[in-house]
User: Which sequence fits this backbone?
DNA sequence: GAGTTTGAAACT
DNA sequence: CAGTTTCAAACTC
């Protein structure tokens, strides 16, 4: 730095110290810590301890959880990093001083930057240019809320990440540094906003933007702070120039990070994640690199996530950074999802109103972001989320697939059900996708879910007539993907009986449903729960997955691949008399499983496995199917069987495979709501998403699930099923298939499975409990 | 789109 | 538990 510059800076700094900006900064530091605490708590609360009830709003929680988890993870990593960083230490002393010092932080930050070296500056400089760009861009993208959004998010995330109220001083120091960066970001945002805002709302918009996120994150200790903040905002508007100048003066590194974040956000739509990353990352020397990387990432984001991944691989040095970026993206994706949901999580409040207004934008942006990002590899295609969601949004969740899944969460998760909910769902799925994608590219299951959701959100709604809906569904489902989103067409059952697929799946009915006099809605949650209880009292397994994978059967598989289907069985068996178990009338067939001894079917020709154990899928099946068929049916069956054979024969051996196997449903695809439900809807849903999205998440989720199905768990762990597998299972295939697998947690159900199922059922009970 | 078939769910 | 009815999905035309 040139001395003159320094002098100027010092002078400017002195000026600024009094300026509202500093006040703002000061105010920020305290705020963040506060948030962090609550968040952590929420997270804990959210933690898997107990799967949300189906009808409750598991989804949301799940999403939130995922989001939090991710954040936390980053934090964890970030913190350590920070600690490791000497720079932080240097600052820590200052930081530790107190909030009041915060104002000085900027100066200190500048100093740091200076100390750190030119490199930082360079980075900062580059960034600055970018910032300008951003500022220019932001206005375009974000009119009012959006701009504010990102910034707040950053702060929020930072908070969440850094939060640590009770943490040791060192932690605090970290936090503060983070805060600095955050604060800087915030300032940056302010500037941007100021620049942008002149147009309309200005401070308010920004404020609003903050609020949404802020709710969780930005909690003002006192109302005064908030107002002060606003005042700052206003002032900032007035003093945009000063801010800009100030910005230029501010530590570039931090600034850059923040900006990058913003840019990313703008691009991706989910600034939060990026921000988080920034926050998480210490300002250390790596920070500069990160900055650069971030910039690069920004550019990359538009391209593909994969590319990023590759890049990561490329240089070890940058690996960490890259990794973050990836994480970021991942996180972003998730977060996006979560945001959607979570915005809820931390932001539930997140300006619902705003969201509604912005949601579309966000969604679009997010989606675009996702897509841009790469649409994660595997994921790509199917939205598992739906599946998870589907059911109880819980489900599958994911599956969420369907809005129904959403159904569970009346409030938040359920939201999906509503039109807005749909949007959410759509988002969820997307997120799920994103989540999933990153993790499991290959996972098929996910896709289904995701897609459904997407489609649901998008199009179906318009269709009014049930049939149209059905047709649409069929179309969607046919691909085998939309399963997640089932829709019912109940007219007399009020969707409070097992006749109703939605209800049976433990999911609330959503718009796409063509049901009449539907009581299976969050509004009637009490009724739904009561009814459920009633039904469960009669039959505890009523809501359990109908198709269960049996470990017992496994041996069968080993014996005969053909028999593999047997590995999975219908819980109670079918009772078909005329369909020869070759049509979807047959639950076994529908579930993609072979008939078993428990079936009372007549003339069983189940392509997946006959009751007598005779050739399930083999040639026979084909021929039989052909016979059975009815042309289209036969063809479908053949296709299915073929598919099954392909994948199934191979896969079949593995129980998991079953779940994985493309179900016959493909034709219809109802999703595995059942499975979702069984799993405990939301939990599943979350799991799927999580699993896909986050390895961590998936793991924990998996644990969760695993815990649920005791018996099966072992099997699952046995190796067949992994959380991922579960996710997969959920995806594409028919409801049952996925459900069984998923239910199991992935493991199949057998008869033993039933018992397990019962255990799993508890998840359902959760529903009851939830209320 | 309307109507029929089918089998699960519900009821007795 | 068995038989019957109700129901909604699956299927056909």
Assistant:
């Amino acid at each position: 730095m040139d001395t003159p510059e320094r002098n100027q800076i010092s002078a400017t700094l002195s000026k600024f110290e009094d300026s509202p900006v500093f006040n703002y900064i000061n105010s920020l530091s305290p705020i963040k810590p506060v948030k962090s605490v609550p968040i952590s708590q929420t997270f804990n609360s959210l933690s898997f301890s107990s799967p949300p009830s189906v009808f409750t709003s598991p989804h949301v929680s799940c999403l939130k959880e995922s989001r939090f988890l991710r954040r936390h993870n980053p934090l964890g990593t970030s913190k350590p990093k920070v600690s490791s960083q000497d720079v932080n230490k240097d600052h820590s002393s200052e930081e530790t001083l107190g909030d009041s010092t915060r104002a000085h932080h900027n100066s200190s930050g500048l100093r740091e930057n200076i100390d750190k070296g030119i490199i930082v500056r360079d980075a900062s400089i580059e960034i600055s240019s970018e910032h300008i760009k951003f500022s220019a861009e932001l206005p375009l993208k974000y009119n009012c809320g959006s701009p504010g959004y990102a910034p707040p998010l950053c702060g929020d995330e930072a908070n969440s990440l850094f939060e640590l109220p009770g943490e040791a001083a060192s932690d605090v120091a970290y936090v503060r540094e983070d805060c600095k960066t955050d604060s800087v970001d915030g300032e940056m945002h302010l500037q941007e906003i100021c620049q942008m805002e002149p147009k309309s709302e200005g401070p308010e918009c920004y404020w609003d933007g903050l609020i949404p996120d802020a709710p969780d994150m930005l909690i003002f200790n006192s109302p005064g702070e908030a107002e002060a903040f606003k005042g700052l905002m206003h002032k900032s508007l007035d003093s945009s120039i000063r801010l800009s100048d100030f910005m230029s003066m501010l530590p570039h590194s931090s600034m850059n990070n923040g900006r990058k974040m913003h840019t990313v956000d703008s691009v991706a739509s989910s600034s939060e994640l990026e921000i988080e990353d920034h926050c998480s990352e210490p300002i250390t020397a790596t920070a500069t690199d990160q900055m650069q990387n971030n910039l690069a990432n920004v550019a990359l984001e538009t391209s593909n996530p994969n590319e990023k991944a590759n890049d990561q691989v490329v240089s070890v040095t940058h690996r960490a950074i890259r990794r973050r970026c990836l994480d970021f993206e991942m996180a972003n994706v998730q977060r996006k999802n979560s945001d959607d949901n979570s915005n809820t999580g931390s932001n539930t409040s997140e300006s619902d109103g705003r969201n509604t207004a912005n949601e579309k934008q966000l969604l679009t942006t997010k989606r675009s972001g996702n897509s841009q990002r790469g649409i994660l590899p595997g994921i790509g295609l199917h939205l598992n989320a739906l599946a998870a969601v589907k059911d109880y949004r819980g489900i599958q969740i994911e599956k969420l697939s369907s809005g129904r899944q959403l159904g569970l969460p009346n409030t938040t998760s359920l939201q999906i059900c509503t039109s807005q909910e749909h949007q959410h769902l759509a988002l969820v799925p997307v997120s799920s996708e994103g989540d999933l994608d990153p993790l499991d590219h290959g996972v098929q299951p996910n896709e289904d879910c995701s897609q459904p959701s997407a489609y649901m959100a998008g199009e179906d709604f318009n269709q009014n007539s049930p049939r149209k809906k059905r047709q649409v569904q069929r179309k969607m489902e046919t691909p085998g993907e939309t399963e997640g989103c089932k829709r019912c067409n109940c007219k007399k059952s009020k969707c409070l009986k097992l006749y109703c697929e939605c209800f049976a799946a433990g999911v609330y009915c959503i718009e796409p449903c063509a049901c009449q006099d539907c009581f299976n809605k969050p509004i009637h949650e009490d009724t739904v729960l009561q009814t459920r209880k009633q039904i469960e009292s009669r039959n505890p397994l009523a809501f359990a997955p109908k198709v269960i994978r049996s470990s017992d059967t496994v041996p069968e598989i080993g014996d005969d691949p053909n028999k593999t289907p047997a590995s999975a069985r219908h819980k109670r068996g079918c009772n078909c008399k005329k369909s020869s178990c070759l049509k979807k009338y047959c639950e076994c067939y529908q579930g993609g499983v072979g008939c078993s001894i428990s079936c009372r079917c007549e003339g069983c020709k189940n392509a997946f496995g006959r009751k007598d154990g005779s050739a399930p899928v083999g040639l026979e099946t084909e021929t039989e199917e052909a016979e059975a068929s009815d042309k289209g049916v036969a063809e479908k069956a053949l296709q299915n069987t073929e598919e099954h054979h392909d994948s199934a024969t191979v896969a079949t051996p593995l129980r998991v495979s079953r779940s994985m196997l493309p179900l016959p449903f493909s034709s219809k695809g109802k999703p595995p709501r059942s499975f979702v439900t069984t799993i405990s809807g939301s939990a599943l849903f979350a799991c799927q998403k999580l699993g896909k999205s986050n390895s961590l998440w998936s793991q924990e989720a998996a644990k969760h699930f695993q815990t649920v199905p005791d018996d099966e768990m072992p099997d699952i762990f046995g190796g067949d099923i992994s959380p991922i597998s579960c996710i997969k299972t959920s995806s594409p295939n028919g409801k049952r298939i996925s459900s069984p697998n998923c239910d199991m947690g992935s493991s199949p159900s057998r008869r033993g499975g039933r018992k397990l199922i019962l255990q799993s059922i508890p998840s359902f009970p959760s529903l009851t409990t939830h209320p």
Q: What stands out?
A: The first helix of chain A runs from residue 3 to 18. Residues 470, 488-493, 497, 499-501, 579, 583-585, 590, 630, 632-633, 668, 670 of chain A lie near DNA strand C (CB under 10 Å from a C1').
